[in-house]
Specification:
globular, single chain, alpha+beta, 9 strands, about 15% helix, about 120 residues
Amino acid sequence: MTTQIPENRETSTPEIFYPTAAAVAQFSQTLAETPDAIGIQMAVTGGGCAGLQYDMKPCSEVPAGFLVQKAGDVTFYIHPVAAAYLKDTVIDYSKDLVDGGFKFKNPNAASTCGCGSSFGV
């Protein structure tokens, strides 16, 4: 599977994953609507129909030991174990009424579920 990396990204290095402009805009909106939020915490947890699932949530303090990546005005705090699973993943966002939300194009996933929120390696 070939992952196309968005050309319009504004991230610091080293880059772990690549959010599109639409994803950055949605993350930015989420942060603006969340009191005291300083960034988005990114992790991968066990669960979902394919075995692993993406976990993203606003955070109000810097999680100890997490990796930091910036894209536009959004700071991401990435769990170090999740970094390997998220490596080179493109994260997009769709406002479509059917099948809208965050979309992950993960080259590390050997399988994904139908809804796209969980994956297997």
